[in-house]
Every structure is written in structure tokens, then in C-alpha cells.
């Protein structure tokens, strides 16, 4: 008894351990951690930190928030994701699309630069984090599947254009606001007279340098004798060079006096922890936007995570990712940050720099914290035009119009969904863009299922196979019509099937048997069952039998629970060949098999 | 040349005639009209008129509107439907569920009994009519398919309960309002002290008589020597007897002095024509409700129309029905009526009374118009309790809890959809009830497609057929895994398939070939194509080939437009048998076919 209960206890403890390390994947990689990992993780952390500083500042600017909030959003959230996330190399923090969505949502309820604006952005991170946590606990990860790849590509492409346009004002040194392409362009044109030459020159130079750095810097460094990997990593630090150079220029030539917008005073120190605003009015105003940002952020993050995991044969768990991203956003909410998610470029840098475990992200968080403590005075002279330049160059990689061509060539419904998403995002802003994308793709899918492809089939000579009479040379019998319904039967197409069969049957003389080949019928719901009962009844009145063949296991299980099989005028056959053999006129000789 | 152009013209004129009579089906039946039809149609019209008078008054009461509006809604709308409708026997007018929905929607913006309330109800008919017309012109009839049969049954059952409860106040002679079961019951209980004995007695007697009339009257009349059909028709006139008897009693014993609510003064005469309120604020407030009422009314009407058409081997065209119901509601809107649709009980009476063509409805409209001109003074003494009794008895036929049991026995998702619809309708009212029904059934359908049934299949010995290895005794080969995916591949399940295949492949040693049997794959969209490309790439890296078999024509057409087939590591086979024969190890002897 003792031994047994001991084993039981051990088993219970093992079970507990498994559940715990599923909830807290850090326990698993933490247990396996060794010195070899430490060296790789530390190196990756240094590289990622250097890259994250300009990125964090830039995305705070994009979100319309003070620069320090970009840094705050890159400290605790990284640690939270490292503890709960299933991806070993995903890097979480402010990203372009989520920052734009934050600006759009918060801009509806407060003016940029006000305390209310910052408060709302922090609350947004909190709400989005709680929503993600709840979705994770309810195991709603499958919801991400309803955003199709083409729709996501289209949405990100259109968002990239909006982001690029929204940053042009910092390059030109003029005012200009808006959530849609029309608002942005007209507001830029309207203020074009106020253009600032120095800001424009700085921005243009930074853009030119960053584009060149992306392709030209690594080969140059190689020629200077650097190792392959070192050259590739240093080339990724282009934005850091741009920031150093323009900050220096700005200080030396006093850009501030020349009307160039600078980052200015950035409070020194770590974020203070605190509960964000719990104002129910604010929460309900932000709820829909927070849901959209959560879904988009989750889909973006999971797709990055999957891509990287596949390269090292690792797996990520979408439901646990919801919890991890939820924890990261709650962490952003309690530490004065704004909505965060897994970003593509930062994760690729982390991966390429050789990060082995999420410890790399924890070290990077420490790096950003040090930057917040020590480096902020240096940022005073940094021109906003430089940050805008890094954003513009970064988002050009998001823009992928090829998806439109691919969709056009492949399928009309994918094409319509992509074009709808892009047009809605550009013309009505990111939130309606996402909604239009989701609804149009689901709507088109459902529409297609309402008019299923139904093929009249005949036997391929000398085989037991049946094929579409319009595509193949096949044998049919005058008293039988064989139909293959290429769709599950459910409420949305039940009456279509009814109409189709009645119309077909009315056209054929001498018909005795209708056989439905159910190879492609994966479900028959109650509405479809009622339709089949009506068809059976009506055909029987006309002296015809209704037969089914090749009904799948799960469908047959369901049919057996109903009265349908008892009322069926014909039979259910295991193969369509048997059905035809059984029902065809006697005078015709049997197939030679 | 002349002859040719003459024939062309004739053909053009024929084409024009066909389009015209499709738009105005009255042209078709009008052309075939003869004296035999006239006699049947006139008789049916008399019977329907007698039945419609109490029904119209009762549904006006249910909608919270003055009695005459019930009559108005039964004149022009009948004529409009007769001209445009494709059903030969459908009878259009006020019906129970649409009247309840009108009361719910209009009650949100005005108090019962006010002029604003009536104005809003008339505008509601107009908006709903225009919506139906637009949907008809856009050929959106297929939208009705998204309301599944179980959801509609559940919704109507729950609405019937709400309607019955809402009429109890007239029977008891007390106040009591509400859109949900909780509101209704608590409001009735709260006012129970004010109960009026005479009203209750009248109502209870009417209910008892009406229930008895439904079953006992026809046999009694038969015993009195009446012919079968005459007895059945007179038995349907139960409400008329109830109205006559209680009106007489009310006049004789002066119910009005005893605190019984009477119909009172009903303006004598025909409705005046006029454009309903075009206040944009009112229209936008009513828009969502009007859309819901339109959809529900359309679905109800088409299902009645189909049932009756099937009995006489006639056909109805859903898109033309949208236009006809649209015209009927616009007619209600310009003639002081409220939303109308095709009703079940009235149509059955029309059908059973022998109506041959929609002319019967035109004659019935004339009958109601005569009643509005001549009979209204008689209605003064009619107790509202009697009308409430006819409603209560009528809605008991709507209530069908059997649908819950059928759904429970047949499929979990149908059961969830029905229960959600009923619960939402009872607890949150008709509008949220309809929405919950539509969204839950679509959501459940989509959810099921995200986790398709995937069967590992093997060959049935001695045949070319492949079946699930878990359900049948089949032959498999160690180097091949054959998968039958029981679902179309699209964005919502593409990543599920990817994960499934990677997991399965990791579990099997010595695997060389993966073959997907695509009999049930009716579509591969762009997201799924990308997933297949990823699977192909990953399997190739692991030294495995990916093969497809039995790809359907339309799917193959799509694949050929992409690069996928060029990159495919394996082949596409016409039959799964060929695929396995080609890929199995040489040492195993071939099948004997």
C-alpha cells in the first residue's frame, strides 16, 4: 500500500511538474540551461539591445508617445514573454503595426502629447493583455486561423503605406495627421509651405544611408577584413550609426535653433510600477480597438514564432503564446509602456545573433534598463527626422504587393479578400481594414459553400472508379443518375441541393434511381438531414429511389442516430460501384473487373 | 436580310416578355386565367377574408398599434404580393413574429399609443420593404440559407412563448410590458392585484372555445350533416364566432363599465395613401431592426411558400420573393400599415379553401377593404381579451420544443445553436435572439472546419478502395502513410493540417512517402496552398515525398495555375490505388485486382 501510494504521489508530482512547465516554459529551458547557452545568449542580448534602443524610440514616436515609453515597453514585457513564451527566439516589444493601431485608437479619445493620451495608451496595453490572457485560458488560439495569410499580408502592406506616409511629416518638419491615406496626403499637402530644410535634409540623408547600409554596409565591412557574421551583425546596426551621426550634427550645428524637432528631455531612470487607469468609460471606449490589436498582434507574433521555430525544428503552442503575449502586455501596462508583440525584424536579429534561449531577451531587457538609466541625456539632440527615417526604411520591408498578383493568378475569392483589405485599410484606417479583411474572407468562404460543385459521375471503363461525365469518358446507365456532391451538407446549402436534384430529376426520362456519392460529404447537419428527408419523400412520390454510397464513418454514425435510414427508399452502399451494380438494368452485362 | 432581322426582333420581343413575366409573375398567371379559376379564387377569398379580419386586428394589438392599422396592412400589401410573388397561394399580411419584432423595435423609440409609435411602425414597413427590394435586385436570396432550420424553429418557439406571455395582460386586464421573459413575468406578477374578473373570464372562455373549436368543431359539424370540406373550413372560423359572441356579451352586459378594455372607436374608411416619415434619425434608429425583421420575415415566408408549392409541384424563386415581399412592405408603408410577410396559418387556409391563383388574395384585399368601410362600428364593443385569446391559441402552434430533442439526438452543434437561440430570445428579446442564432450556427460551422477529420487510410483487400485504418481491416505499407483529409483546405484549417502532418510524420519510422487522398478536398485556397508548399518543403528536407491522389477537377485547375505542382517532391495520381502501387516497396507483391 505504502509503495503504491508513493508511486501515486510521484506520478502526481510528475503530472504537476508537466502542467507547471507547460504554463511556465521557462522552467523547462531553465532546467537545461548551461554555460554554453550563456555565452551565446549574452552576445545576442548585446546586439539586440543596440538595435532595440532606436527601434523603441521610433515606435514610441509612431504611436504618438514620449520616447521613454518606448524604452519602458522594452523592459518588463521582454521578461514576461521570456518566462511564459514557447518560442525560444521571439523578441517582444513595440512593433510598427501595433504602434500605428495604438495611435489610431488612442487618437480617437485624446490629443497627442496630452497626459490623457499616454494614460489611454497604457490602459490599452493592460486591456489587450487581459484579453489575450483570457483567450489563452479559454484556448482560443484557433481564432487566429480566421485571418488568412493573404488578408494579413494585404493588411500589413496597407499599414506599411499608412505608417510611411504618417512619418513623412517628421522628415519634412511639418504638421500632418490622419488615419487614412486621403487624410494623410491632404494634410501633408496643406502644410507643405512650412517645410523645414534642415529636417528634410537630415531625414533624407538618414533614409539614403539606411537603404545603402542594408545592402552596401556588410560587403564593405567584409572587404575591411571582418568575419562574415560580425559584418552581417554590424550592418544591422545601421540605425545606431544614423542616430549617432545626426545627434552629433544636431548638437554641433544647433538644429533646435533651426526649427528642427528634437526628441528633447527624456526622463532618466526606470519606469515606476503602478496600476493603469481603471476608468470603466475609458476601458469600454478602448475595448474594440484593444481586441483588434490583440488579434493582429497575436497573428503577427505567432507567424514570426512559427517561422523561426521551424528553422530549428522547435514547436510553438498558440494557446500558450496567447498567455505569454497577454503577460507581456500586462507587464507593459503596469510599467508605463504601450501595446507590444513579437516583431519580425527584432526576432530575426536575435535569432541570427545566435540566441539559444529566452534568457537572451532577459539580458536584453537589462540592457534597455541600463540605457534608460544612463543614455537618456544623449537623446536630447536626436532629431525626430532620424527616427522617422528608421521607421520608413523599416516598413518598406512590410510592403508586399506581390500578394495581390499571386491571389489574382490563383483564386478570385482570395483576390477579392486581399483587395478589400488593402482598400479598406488605406481608405478607412487600420481598424476597419482588419474587420473588412476578416469578414470578407469568412463571407466569401461561406458564399462558396452555399453553391457546392455537384458533378454527375459515371464509371471509368474497367475500373471501380467514378468520375465527372463532363471531364472524363465514362459509362452511365439510363435509369440511374449518380451525383457526387463536392461539399459538406449543412444549413447554408441544404436547399440548394434540394433544388438541384428536383431540377435534374425533372430533366431525365426513364429515371429510376438517384445515387449520391458521399466521398466529399464530411458532415450532414440537421438542416441538411431534413432536406435529404424531403428529397427522399419527393423522389419516392415520383417512383424513384434515393441511395447513398461511400458515406464516411463520422457521417454514418450521425445518420444512424436519426430516423432517416429507416425511411430511405433506396440503400446505403459501401462503394459507389456496388450501388450502380445493384441498381442498373439486368439486361446490361456486368462490368469486367 | 429582312427575314433575319424580323426573326431577331421576334426573339428580342420574346426575351423581353420572359424578363417581364419573371419580374411580374402576374402577367403569366393572368394570361392563363379562366372562369374555372375565378370560382375557386372567389370562394377562397371569402373564407380568407373572414379569417383575416380577427387576425389583422389581433396582430395590430400585438404590435401595440390601433386596430385599423391591422386592416390597412391587409389591403394593399396583398395586392402588391399578388402582382410580384411567385407563390400561387401564399397569403401575405401581419403575422405574429413580425408583429412582435415591430413592437420590440418601435417600443425602443416611442411609447405605445403615441402618434410617434404609429409613425415609426409605418416607417419600419417602408424601410424593411426597401431593404427587401434592394436585396432582391442584388439577388441576395441565398442569404436566407444562413438561418438554419433548427435555429428558425428555436427562434419561433421562443418568440411564441414571449408572444403568449405578452398577451396574458389583456386576458387578465392588467398592465404588463417587456421584451424578455423575465421582464414580462415580473411585470405581470407586480400588477397581479389589479386583475379584472370579467376580462379574465372572457379571455379564458375564448381560449377554451378556440382550443375546443380546433379539434371538436369539425367533427360536430360533420355529425350535423355538413360536407367534409365545408366543416373543415367553418371550423377554421372559430375566432370569428369567438369575436361575435364576446362582442355581443360585451354590448349586452356593458363590459366597458366593468373596466374591461375594448377595441373602441375604429376610424371608418380606407387608408389614405402617403409617404411615411423620411426622418433620417428615425430611419437610422430603425435600420438594424428593419434588417432583422426583413430577414426573419423572408425566411418564414419562403419556407411557407416552398411547403405549399411542393404540394402542387410548383416552384418559387427566392430572389423574386424578396422583390414581392419588398413591394408588399412598401405598400404597407404608403398605406398606413406595418411590417407584413407571408404567414403560415393564413396561407394554409387559402390553399385548403382551393385558391388557384394570387387573384384570390386580390379578392381578399377587396373583402378587407369592404370590412374597413362597413364593419368597424361593430368592433367598438369587442374586448381586447378576445383578440389576445386568438393570439395565444394561434401561437401555441408555433411552439415546437421537439426541435431541441431532435437536435440533441442528432448533433451537438445543432443542439448548441438551438439552445443558444431559444435562451437568447427568451432572455434578451427577439433581436438579440435572431443574431445569436445566426452567429452561433455560422460560428459552430466554422469552428468544425478548423479541425478537420483526418483519417489514415489503407487498402481494402482485393479492391482499389481505401478506408480508415481505425474502422476497417485494411492493408498498409510501412514506407507510406496515406491520409484522407475530410474537409476543404482553406485559411481556417491550413495550419492545423501542417501541424497534424508534422506530428504524424515525426511518429513513424522508416517513412518515405506521404500521400494525401483528396476526395473530400473541394477547395484549396491561397493560404492552404502556402501551407502545402511549406509541408512539401519540410518533408523534402526530411527526405520524404509528398503526393496527392484523386484531386478533383476544379481543385486541379486551380493548382495548375500555381507553381506548387512544379515544386512538388512527389506526384499527383488519378487514383489512390495507383499512388500506393507506385510508391510501395518492390519486394511486396502487387495487389490482385
Q: What topology emerges from the helices and strands here?
A:
2 copies of one chain form a homodimer.
Chain A lengths: L1 H22 L2 H6 L3 H28 L4 H6 L3 H9 L7 E2 L2 H12 L7 H23 L11 H24 L8 H10 L6 H27 L4 H9 L1 H15 L27 H32 L6 H17 L6 E2 L1 H9 L6 H16 L9 H13 L5 H9 L1 H17 L1 H21 L3 E7 L5 E3 L5 E2 L4 E6 L8 H14 L5 E5 L8 H16 L3 E5 L3 H8 L3 H4 L4 E2 L2 H8 L10
Parallel strand pairs in A: 6-7, 7-8, 8-9
Antiparallel strand pairs in A: 1-2, 3-4, 3-5, 3-6
What does this 3D model show about the protein?
2 copies of one chain form a homodimer. The first copy, chain A, has 593 residues and is mainly alpha-helical. Chain A has 3 domains: 1-32; 36-398, no CATH class; 454-583, 2-Layer Sandwich (Transcription Regulator spoIIAA). Helix content of chain A is 63%, strand content 6%. In chain A, the strands form 2 sheets. In chain A, strands 3, 4, 5, 6, 7, 8 and 9 form a 7-stranded mixed β-sheet that branches. A two-stranded antiparallel ribbon of chain A has the order 1-2. The longest helix of chain A has 32 residues, at 280-311. Chain A is elongated. At the A-B interface, helix 8, helix 18, helix 20, helix 21 and helix 22 of A face helix 8, helix 18, helix 20, helix 21 and helix 22 of B.
Compact overview of the structure:
The structure is a homodimer of 593-residue chains. With 593 residues, chain A is mainly α. Helices cover 63% and strands 6% of the residues of chain A.
Comma- or semicolon-separated keywords:
seven-stranded mixed beta sheet; 593 residues; 25 helices; disordered N terminus; two-stranded antiparallel ribbon; elongated
Amino acid at each position: 500500500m505504502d509503495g503504491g501510494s508513493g508511486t501515486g504521489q510521484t506520478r502526481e508530482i510528475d503530472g504537476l511538474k508537466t502542467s507547471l512547465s507547460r504554463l511556465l516554459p521557462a522552467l523547462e529551458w531553465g532546467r537545461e540551461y548551461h554555460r554554453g547557452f550563456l555565452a551565446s545568449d549574452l552576445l545576442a542580448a548585446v546586439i539586440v539591445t543596440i538595435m532595440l534602443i532606436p527601434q523603441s524610440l521610433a515606435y514610441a514616436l509612431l504611436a504618438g508617445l514620449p520616447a521613454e515609453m518606448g524604452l519602458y515597453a522594452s523592459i518588463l514585457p521582454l521578461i514576461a514573454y521570456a518566462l511564459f513564451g514557447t518560442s525560444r527566439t521571439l523578441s517582444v516589444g513595440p512593433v510598427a503595426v501595433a504602434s500605428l493601431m495604438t495611435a489610431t485608437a488612442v487618437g480617437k479619445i485624446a490629443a497627442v502629447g496630452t497626459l490623457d493620451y499616454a494614460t489611454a495608451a497604457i490602459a490599452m496595453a493592460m486591456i489587450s493583455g487581459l484579453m489575450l490572457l483570457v483567450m489563452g485560458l479559454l484556448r482560443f488560439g484557433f481564432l487566429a486561423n480566421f485571418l488568412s495569410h493573404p488578408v494579413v499580408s494585404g493588411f500589413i502592406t496597407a499599414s506599411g503605406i499608412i505608417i510611411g506616409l504618417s512619418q513623412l511629416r517628421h522628415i519634412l518638419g511639418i504638421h500632418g495627421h490622419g488615419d487614412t491615406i486621403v487624410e494623410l496626403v491632404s494634410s501633408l499637402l496643406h502644410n507643405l509651405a512650412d517645410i523645414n530644410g534642415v529636417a528634410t535634409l537630415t531625414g533624407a540623408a538618414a533614409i539614403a544611408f539606411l537603404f545603402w547600409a542594408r545592402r552596401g554596409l556588410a560587403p564593405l565591412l567584409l572587404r575591411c577584413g571582418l568575419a562574415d557574421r560580425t559584418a552581417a551583425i554590424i550592418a544591422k546596426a545601421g540605425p545606431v550609426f544614423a542616430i549617432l551621426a545626426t545627434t552629433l550634427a544636431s548638437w554641433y550645428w544647433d538644429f533646435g535653433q533651426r526649427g528642427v524637432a528634437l526628441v528633447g528631455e527624456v526622463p532618466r531612470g526606470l519606469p515606476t510600477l503602478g496600476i493603469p487607469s481603471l476608468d470603466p468609460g475609458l476601458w469600454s471606449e478602448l475595448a474594440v480597438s484593444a481586441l483588434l490589436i490583440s488579434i493582429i498582434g497575436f497573428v503577427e507574433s505567432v507567424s514570426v514564432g512559427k517561422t523561426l521555430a521551424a528553422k530549428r525544428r522547435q514547436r510553438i503552442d498558440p494557446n500558450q503564446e496567447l498567455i505569454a503575449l497577454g503577460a507581456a502586455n500586462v507587464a507593459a501596462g503596469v510599467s508605463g509602456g504601450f501595446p507590444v508583440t513579437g516583431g519580425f525584424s527584432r526576432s530575426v536579429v536575435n535569432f541570427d545573433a545566435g540566441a539559444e534561449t529566452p534568457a537572451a531577451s532577459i539580458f536584453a531587457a537589462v540592457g534597455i534598463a541600463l540605457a534608460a538609466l544612463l543614455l537618456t541625456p544623449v537623446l536630447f539632440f536626436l532629431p525626430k527626422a532620424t527616427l522617422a527615417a528608421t521607421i520608413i526604411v523599416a516598413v518598406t520591408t512590410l510592403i508586399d504587393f506581390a500578394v495581390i498578383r499571386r491571389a489574382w493568378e490563383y483564386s478570385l475569392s482570395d483576390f477579392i479578400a486581399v483587395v478589400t483589405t488593402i482598400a479598406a485599410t488605406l481608405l478607412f484606417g487600420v481598424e476597419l481594414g482588419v474587420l473588412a479583411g476578416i469578414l470578407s474572407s469568412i463571407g466569401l468562404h461561406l458564399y462558396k459553400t452555399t453553391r457546392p460543385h455537384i458533378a454527375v459521375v459515371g464509371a471509368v471503363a474497367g475500373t471501380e472508379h467514378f468520375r465527372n461525365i463532363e471531364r472524363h469518358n465514362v459509362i452511365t446507365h439510363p435509369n440511374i443518375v449518380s451525383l457526387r456532391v463536392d461539399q459538406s451538407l449543412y444549413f447554408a446549402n441544404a436547399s440548394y441541393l434540394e433544388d438541384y436534384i428536383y431540377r435534374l430529376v425533372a430533366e431525365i426520362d426513364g429515371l429510376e434511381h438517384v445515387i449520391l456519392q458521399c466521398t466529399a460529404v464530411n458532415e450532414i447537419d440537421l438542416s441538411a438531414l431534413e432536406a435529404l428527408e424531403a428529397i427522399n419523400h419527393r423522389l419516392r412520390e415520383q417512383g424513384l429511389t434515393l441511395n447513398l454510397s461511400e458515406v464516411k464513418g463520422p457521417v454514418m454514425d450521425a445518420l444512424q442516430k436519426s430516423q432517416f435510414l429507416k425511411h430511405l427508399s433506396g440503400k446505403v452502399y459501401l462503394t459507389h460501384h456496388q450501388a450502380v451494380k445493384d441498381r442498373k438494368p439486368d439486361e446490361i452485362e456486368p462490368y469486367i473487373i
